[in-house]
Design goal:
The protein is mainly α. It is 82% helix and 0% strand. The chain has six helices and no strands. The longest helix is centred in the middle third of the chain and has 26 residues. It is globular, with a radius of gyration of 14 Å.
Length: 126
């Protein structure tokens, strides 16, 4: 469970470091919005049928994450100080997301189709 939470946090950080998004901060905010949508999808899962539907939704959201990351890669990279400021500004929201998603992570273990979709979606953020 803890590893999955760390995976989510790491994915957000990787996405923030990877590139219309006008700035890295805009990209991070857009990615956070998509991650919140993913959380909403997981919250609706309560059986195998809903897990299969959710897997498709998560994959689609993963494609959106890939688009955002692609746009972010085209931007100049912020220096370490700017990145630290951005991360500090968004740290409370990331902590809240980690708490909210923690309750849903058990569904990834319970429904392998969700695990596969989630891993592919997170891979899209590179």
């Amino acid at each position: 469970m803890r590893n999955k939470l760390l995976m989510v946090a790491s994915a957000l950080l990787v996405a923030a470091c990877s590139g219309g998004i006008g700035s890295y901060e805009d990209g991070i905010e857009a990615q956070a919005e998509v991650m919140q949508e993913m959380l909403g999808v997981l919250e609706k899962v309560d059986d195998e049928s809903s897990a299969k539907k959710a897997a498709g939704d998560i994959e689609a959201l993963g494609n959106r994450l890939a688009e955002i990351s692609g746009q972010m890669r085209e931007l100049p990279r912020p220096d370490a100080s700017e990145m630290r400021d951005i991360m500090q500004k968004h740290s409370a929201a990331m902590q809240e997301f980690q708490q909210d998603v923690g309750a849903q992570m058990m569904k990834l273990a319970e429904y392998p189709v969700l695990t596969d979709a989630w891993m592919r979606a997170m891979g899209n953020m590179r």
